Amino acid sequence: MGQVNLYLLATDGAVASADRPSIERLLKDDKLLWLDLEGKGAEGAALLRDVFDLHPLALEDVEEFGQRPKIEDFGDVSYLVAYGAKGATEELVEVHCFYSEHYVITVRQEPCAVLDELRKTFGQPGGALSVQSASRRPRPIRLILLHHVMDSLVDSFFPALSDFDDRIDDLQQQIFAKPGDEQLSQLFAMQKWLVGLRKLVTPQRDSMASLVAGVTSLPGMTPEGEPYLRDLYDHLIRISDLVDSYRDLLSNAMDAYLSIVSNRLNEVMKQLTVIATIFLPLSFLTGFFGQNFGWMVNRLGSLPTFLLLGMGTEILAAAGLFTLFRRRGWS
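Above: the chain sequence. Below: its structure as tokens.
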């Protein structure tokens, strides 16, 4: 794989060089090891195959990105697929993770800001993963490392969802102000992204639920590590609830859009109907007096008759209908 980064997380937050001899030495000494692989390549594949001796099926899966979140047990190694967000954007990053009692390996195809920031934090002296602790309780240090990695990915959804919430509010205001094709296009695009996110968050939540319920277990799992898994599950539950609530908001926005467009169409149709109804008696009167009969031509030819019958009846009919429509609230 293109870029290989090796980090030794110990009491002093030491960072080791990313070469094969160093990895083999650290594994032999049973040091806390986090190997972060970015991109694909023969070097990374050889490390996973020859040094860590991963299962062939796991090696096959890690070559195929675009998988749904899952957790699989390969004896002394657990294989997890998880997703995170790239900051406050709709772009997602897929991370494959191998966890054992001796190491944690993360594999990804593209940069991941939250993992980069996590490495910087752990690389500082006296970092967050100090083996020594003031508490007398034993600390599951390797599970804590996995928790930090997974938690950073899970928590990266919150800024993206917060920005998504603001976009929903703006879209709703635009819809109530003046709905148009642009708002409809945004609505469909946001629904599509939310459906895709739900397809990833739900299995990721279910995978963590299986760990919490004890259906699936991690290597070296102890009662001290259970709170860390419950914390991850709690965060995924919150994200799942947010996704469901935003889905309801978008459905309501779609209903509001269709309702407003329908009401405006009804207003236009009502106005056209009023105009057509007013012109209906006018058309009848002009058609009636436009008949070319000799009796009408000989007797209805004076100016007062024209003003009374020709103009007066039409004005009276239009005024009467307009007054009727106003009283009934139709105009």
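Strands lie at 3-8, 33-38, 70-74, 77-85, 92-99, 104-108.
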